[in-house]
Amino acid sequence: MSPSLADIRMFEIISKILDLFQFKNNITHLSIYRDDGFVLFDSSEDNLMTFFDIANTIHPLIKFTHEISSESIQFLDITVFKGERWEEMQILDVKLYRKPTDNFQYLERTSTHPTSVFKGFITAEIIRFRRSCNNLKDFNREVQLFKSKLLKRGHYENEIDNIITNTTKRERKQTLKYNYKNKKAAPPLVFATRFNPAFKGIGRALRKHWHLIEQNRNTKTMFPKPPIIA
């Protein structure tokens, strides 16, 4: 509940600030995520500063800090900037933002985890890069940097390349869409075990002999589909 309550409280505070801000009609865009905000303001910097003057008087325990730029700015994990599209179409570009303290401590390949875990986090990161970069040059640069860091963590180049090839087939529009889950669907059957590298064949053996479950009327009703191995 804490994040939701924080969102509600922040909405109340921002609403109060906007009620008092005389240049609010010059705000062309305002995004808030938790305690981070992103504003596009079509007026002078002096006029914008009155927004923060008001903001820092709303609540004695809440103080706002800010960064102002006419060229580029960071918001969450992206950098919004005036790139090639700005010169041609007056549209802002976005690319991935990394904190200076990022030390790329990805999961080592020698760690005792299922292969799906390694594939999963690599795929997820590449999708995040694609979502965060509208320019292919920026995206490809992030992918190559990511690959070089994975190699240093002991990951296999052929595995990385296969994941990159499969993941980069997705159009950026696909990565920006929210995938709605079917809440009415029955939860999957899960066969939970304690992970051990020596048990790699459990899933294969289970699928091979699943017909034995299906031959019995009672077990077939109880277990209509093979379980997910976890």
Protein architecture, described:
With 230 residues, the protein is α+β, with helices and mostly antiparallel strands. The chain is 47% helix and 13% strand. The chain has 10 helices and 7 strands. The protein has helices at residues 2-20, 45-58, 84-89, 115-132, 136-152, 157-167, 172-176, 202-208, 210-214, 217-222; strands spanning 27-33, 36-41, 72-75, 78-81, 93-96, 190-191, 228-229. Strands 3-4-5 form a 3-stranded antiparallel sheet. A hairpin with a 2-residue loop joins strand 3 and strand 4 (78-81). Helix 4 runs antiparallel to helix 5 (136-152) and helix 5 (136-152) packs antiparallel against helix 6. The two termini are 28 Å apart. The model has no long low-confidence stretch (mean pLDDT 89).
